[in-house]
Amino acid sequence: MRIPLEKAQNLLQNGQVVAIPTETVYGLAASMKHPSAIAQIFALKERPSKNPLIVHLAHAKQILNYASSLPPSFDNLANHFWPGPLTMVLPSDTSLIPDQARAGLQTTAFRIPQHKLALALIDVVGPLVMPSANRSGRPSATHPEHVEADFGDDFPVLDGGICDHGLESTILSWVEERWKIVRLGALPPEIFNPILGYTPEIVVNFKTTPICPGQLYRHYAPQAKLNLKYDLSAQPGVILGFNERFYPQATQVYRLGSLERPEDVAESLYAILRQLDTDNVAEASVDINFPEQGLWKTITERLFKASKK
Ligand code: TXA
Ligand code: MG
User: pLDDT tens digit string along 3-23?
Assistant: First the structure.
């Protein structure tokens, strides 16, 4: 159910959960002041209670109220990338952030989103805790219809159209005296180099401590079985491929976009994965013969996770 901004404000202030647009993906928002609404997020998404939520604020300076210390380069990163698709994990004052939002950790993930509707809501309602607005394991929602597909037509959604980035924020965490990427996202790793003087390492080893708990779970997956392949020239069946390539044996091709424009591929990726479900596709082959740098890194990681069963 599409609702206007005032109604979204009202529902959030009354402790209800509302789906709202951000520049990355739609979020399932709850006011940080309402523990029952935060609990509702976990129930709605069927999200494991060990997977913490991001706290969304309107201004970087508000973080000073919640963080117990700020790592080196925090200010530079904040100045360059906020508002925007960056999330930073910081040691936090645990008395001010509900335990369930942090999943019991001593740190909190913070983001200042760029979307004017999200910012308007945070200005009035205060901090919003907000995971992506999809059922756990499913592709994130980049359009109100995706939210309705997962949570029903009556679920309140503030309509902001299609999300610009189409991929979630990049998450940085200060680990062992370095910023590390604990979730790939809409900002490619190389973009941090001019600010930090190094490209943050992507940390995928979770054998000891779960640095980013969400990475442990299956994610972004449609019903269809996805087979990732480098050469689809003789591949029959349904194919997810690129505008400039020819797939002579395919029975049907879903175009992810142009190899020249990874931003466009990112923007439409989840919508195409969801379209496979709408079309009852049981199995598809995905063309993963594309570059390995920049945003393609995130796209590869999402497709890899989406293909896991
Ligand atoms: O773009 C985004 O980040 C979107 C929009 C709505 O802002 N949100 C989003 O939230 O993607 P979610 O819940 O789908 O993913 C948040 C990720 C999870 O993998 C979670 O484990 C991680 O952030 N996370 C949250 N708090 C953390 C913490 N204190 N330490 C490490 N990872 C944390
Ligand atoms: Mg998510």
Answer: 999 999 999 999 999 999 999
Residue 226 backbone zone (phi > 0: left; psi -120 to 50: alpha; other: beta) = beta
Angstrom distances, CA of residue 173 to CA of 203, 212, 273: 10, 9, 29
Nearest to 86 by CA among 94, 95, 77, 99: 77
- The secondary element (H helix, E strand) that includes residue 303 is helix 295-307
* Statement: the pTM of the whole predicted model exceeds 0.85: yes
**How many angstroms does the Cα of residue 140 sit away from the middle of ligand 2?**
6
CB 302 within 8 A of CB 240: no
Structure tokens at 105: 């950790």
The response to whether residue 109 sits with its C-beta less than 6 Å from ligand 1 reads yes
User: Tens digits of per-residue pLDDT, 22-33?
Assistant: 999 999 999 999
Distance 72 CA to ligand 2 centre (A): 28
